[in-house]
Each structure stands twice: as C-alpha cells, then as structure tokens.
Amino acid sequence: CKMNEQKHLIQQLKDKIECPVCMEVPRSGPVPVCPNGHFVCKKCKTDACPTCRTNMGSGKSLLAATILEKVEHRCNSEDCEEQFKWKDIYEHEKVCPYRIVSCPDIDCTERVSLAKLVDHLRKSNECCGEEAAPLGALDDWNSRNFTIVDAFQKNLTWIMNMYDYAGETFAVFPVIIDGDYYFVVVMFASETECSKYKLEMIIHDQEQTSDAQMTVKFQGNPLSIDEKEGLCLYSTGGQLMRRIMKKPNPEKDAGFQMSFKISKIE
C-alpha cells in the first residue's frame, strides 16, 4: 500500500544520510558532504571523507538538511523508543521519562535514567532511608524529626525519605551547607509538572507543634529533579535554627521537625 511505500522511502532516505562514523542520523543541517556525494555528520567531520577518503572541502547538502526536517528522529534516551519530527524531538527529550537525571542526594554523583531513579535510591545505603516503595504522603501534614549532635556543625546531610503523592514521587531531606540549613522537597518531574503542585513547609522544634511561636515557614512549588544545582532554595541561617532547637534538656541532642504538605493546584 502507499503508506508502506512511503515509510520504506523515508527509511531509505534516512539510511543514505546516516553518518558512516557514528552511525547516527544528524538532527539538523547543514550536513557536510564530500565532492562525491558522501555525507558525514558535523561532529565526525575531518579533512578526509570517511567513505571515499577524498578531501571533504566545505560542501554542505541543502537537500539532506530538508530531509532531516521531515523525517522522525529517535529520542536520545537509551531506553526510549519514541520518535519525533525535528521540531518536536528536543521538547520531548526535556520531559522524557527515561532522561538522565542526577541523584537528588547532595553528596551523590550518580546520574541515572529517571525511570530507574527510585530503584537507585532504594538500593543505596547512603542516599535514602526507604528500602521498599516510597511512603504514601498524607493529604494533611507529614512530619519528620531530625537530630544533630553539634548545633554549630557547618556541613551535614541527613538521609532522605521518599514519598508518593498523586502518582508522583518526592524526595524529602534537610542539609547543612557552610552553616546554613536547606530544606529540600524535590519532585521527580519536570519544572512544568512541579508548577502544578503547591508545597507548604514548617520547620519547628521537635517538642512543639507546627503552630509554635518560633518557626520557619515556606510556601511555593516542589523543586524539579531536573535542577539539582537549584535544590538549595528553601533555607535559613544557623543562628535562627539554633533558637528553634533550643534544648530544655541538656542530655538530649538538639533537633527539629520538618513538617510539609503537598497539594495539587486546581
């Protein structure tokens, strides 16, 4: 049928402009071409044509560039089978469920597929406190207690916990960097998806409720897994935290409670 013939023709065109070095179809033009008509992608181009060894020169193929705009390109994510036209492929890759992301743990340098991030965290002995599935987040306030031996400590990362809310996964943990306290609630989704959720957070003494007089409150959106460099957004200074953690019992370690609530913006 005509549809199959068209698909076969498109595949033949893609095969003709596939780079003979990296075996990939270029995403966009201009496409370098040697005097004998052989193509090579821009990143693999050298002085000699990889096919016939003639001097490449500065030739560019406008026809190849036009073809690249019309054919579908496969997503660069290793486990993704999706294909899109040139004008749509980059937008897909920004939100691809298989895109590579950084582990949200401040001290971890692992980069994994988003689809495998929960498995990475569950299997890690240092990043996360959950060995099974993420905890179900309550519609009301969720709370975690954190202790610290030295309230003047300059750097400290507590173990994170994972929560599931409305089908989305969240990592929650505090961290001290250069004496400042940061409270991280990161959502395993794009910034666009994160903007659809509201985050409320209250930091207070372990022995008191969230309506205590001495608290720190934050309100905004959860942080996106795509912005590890921007995870340190909700923060306060060490001096205020030491007042919040003022110990009535000198035999106990200092500590605070991190209470948070996640809701979907209607």
Helix fraction bin: 10-25%
The helix-strand sequence is HEEHEEHEEHEEEEEEHEEEEHE
Number of helices: 6
> Given the helix and strand composition, which structural class is it?
alpha+beta
Broad shape: elongated
Provide the low-confidence segments as ranges: none
Overall average pLDDT = 86
> What share of residues are in beta strands?
25-35%
Rg over alpha carbons: 26 Å
Largest sheet: 7 strands, mixed
Tell me the span between the first and last alpha carbons: 47 Å
Could you give the count of β-strands? 17
Q: What's the short version?
A:
The protein has 266 residues and is an alpha+beta fold. 20% of the residues lie in helices and 30% in strands. The strands form 5 sheets. Strands 7, 9, 10, 11, 12, 15 and 16 form a 7-stranded mixed beta sheet that branches. Strands 8-17-13-14 form a 4-stranded antiparallel beta sheet, with helices on one face. The chain has a two-stranded antiparallel sheet with strand order 1-2.
